[in-house]
C-alpha cells in the first residue's frame, strides 16, 4: 500500500498522527507531515487506513499501484454502430420518453 498526503488540504486536526504516528507527524503549526515515502507494509495497513478514513479534510489518499499493463483492454465492438443506441423521437416508446 502507498499513501499520499496533500498538505494543501490538511486542516491540522491531527487525527492521522493519533492513529498512525509512525507515518504522520505534526509540524510546528499542527499540520500533518508524511514520514517516509508513503509506502506502508501490510502489518501497518489497518492503522494507516484508519487515519485515511478518519481524516476530516480528506488530505490522505491511497495511491493506486496498478501498472499500465495491468489495465484491461476496453471491450468495444468495432462492427457495432454507435448510433444504434441513441435516444431519438423515432424510438421514444422504447426508451420510455413522455411528453
TrEMBL record:
Entry-linked InterPro entries: Fe-S_cluster_ET
Biased composition (Basic and acidic residues): 65-90
Region described as Disordered: spans on this chain: 65-99
UniProt KW keywords: 3Fe-4S, Electron transport, Iron, Iron-sulfur, Metal-binding, Transport
Cofactor(s) needed: [3Fe-4S] cluster
Keyword Transcription: no
GO MF term set: 3 iron, 4 sulfur cluster binding; metal ion binding
Protein name: Ferredoxin
Source organism per UniProt: Mycobacterium bohemicum
Amino acid at each position: 500500500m502507498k499513501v499520499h498526503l496533500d498538505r494543501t488540504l490538511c486542516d491540522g486536526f491531527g487525527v492521522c498522527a493519533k492513529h498512525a504516528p509512525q507515518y504522520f507527524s505534526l509540524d510546528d503549526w499542527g499540520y500533518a507531515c508524511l514520514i517516509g515515502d508513503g509506502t506502508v507494509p501490510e502489518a501497518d495497513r489497518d492503522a494507516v487506513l484508519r487515519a485515511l478514513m478518519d481524516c476530516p479534510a480528506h488530505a490522505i489518499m491511497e495511491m493506486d499501484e496498478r501498472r499500465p499493463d495491468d489495465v484491461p483492454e476496453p471491450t468495444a465492438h468495432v462492427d457495432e454502430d454507435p448510433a444504434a443506441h441513441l435516444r431519438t423521437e423515432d424510438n421514444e416508446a422504447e426508451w420510455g420518453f413522455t411528453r
